[in-house]
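Q: What structure does this chain adopt?
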Amino acid sequence: MRAIVYTEKGPSSVMRLAERPVPEPGPGQVRVRVVRAGVNPTDWKARVGSAMTTGFPEVTPGQDGAGIIDAVGPGVPDVSGLAFGGRVWLYLTQHGSPYGTAAEYCVLDWQRAVPLPSELAGDAAFDLGACLGVPAMTAHRALTSGPRAERLGPGTLTGQVVLVHGGAGAVGNAAIQLAAWSGATVLTTVSSAEKGALAAAAGADHIVNYRTQDAAAAIRQLAPDGVDLVAEVSPAVNNELDLAVAANGATIAIYANNGGDTFGIDIRPTFSRNLHYQFLLLYTLEPAHLTAAAEDITAALAAGALRAGEEAGLPLHHHPLEATTAAHDAVERGTVGKVLIDVDR
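A:
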């Protein structure tokens, strides 16, 4: 099979296209013929060494993707959609494994291969499936971090005001769509009119351009009683703003460190409003959280509530497998939208 591999940490140039044996699924694993692979910041950060290390002499990158089940190992339960020929979306594929999605085949634990709903058809299903994984799972956990909703679905966030920072990013896009599907009023911050248009396409009710507006004043005007939950990508930059707009008992769910690695907390105004800080990382989440996220995301897919493409606020950028270096570089330089690798020729 064709696979992208690297054997040392470093820039994208350490990756190369190689021929490798097709891996065999072990106990509890399935083998997937990959059609699309998604590229996330965690992929290039792992490659340069600033994310969790792999411990394998050679690695094929890629946590996310979508494809078709090609083989089933011993001990895989008889779950609908996980038989030979089943279409699946994948998450945390390369976590704890040398086999990522930037290859024609990968093997992974069966729990991380989630059947695509029958409502999705054609290549668009694989495009959308490869956009999930890290972004949608992260968004789900952020939205269920508060005390008012452990699962997402129609009505579960009704009456809540959710603030999504960075609404034009992949996680922000998923958070907007999932929160809107669940009944929340969704506010988002963006840095340009173009990104605001993408956030609106995703389903945000209100968009605040923090470069041209007083963000705290604008958010307080839109949500006089404060916001109930914040999906936070830049806590070092936004913590003062979050404190200014948070309602009593609000949750600030932090999933990244964009803009700085540390921030200070003004203790009295924080504890006096009973605020919750929830930090989250998919790789160390309890399996129950991952399972819940996979189930709710699949339900949102079946309902048409999770979409991809510019009309959904998430422009798609396709690269062939042999151009995986360009795909990684695009994500590293902050390309707006979702970068995909077309693995199946």
